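Hey,
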Amino acid sequence: MTTLADLSHTNHDEPYSEDYLQTILKSVKTIAMVGASADKTKFSYGVLRVLHETGYDMVPVNPRLAGGEIRGLKVYGSLEEIDRPVDMVEVFRSADALLGVAHEAVAIGAKVLWGQIGVVNAEAARVAEEAGMKVVMDRCPKIELFRPFWKPKLHLKI
């Protein structure tokens, strides 16, 4: 079985392999979601809900909602305030904000930095990878988690 330590992907302009993405999603347990929203109409809420229902220990991070709850989960104001180890930091913020989040993710010892669809920052990827983290950008973990089940069966006749 491939482990996080075995993974390698440094050219983020190239597609990520299925093995790379699936190994990350199978390896991580605790996911801090930076930019989590309590608004049920927001995409970040839906992703948090599905990942939480799938069994991940979700940690919402949003300074405006700090001290409150989203789906019964305590909301933290920053990554450094989280009271347990974090495996993956998922980012629902602008691409410009990703660099700052990368520095914070390195500081807390996270293993993976994941930028949501549209969240791409080469400098943030460099910072995270130099610290030994794995990086995914411009992808949604909710989509990637279920992608293997959506693959068409090309050998079947229609």
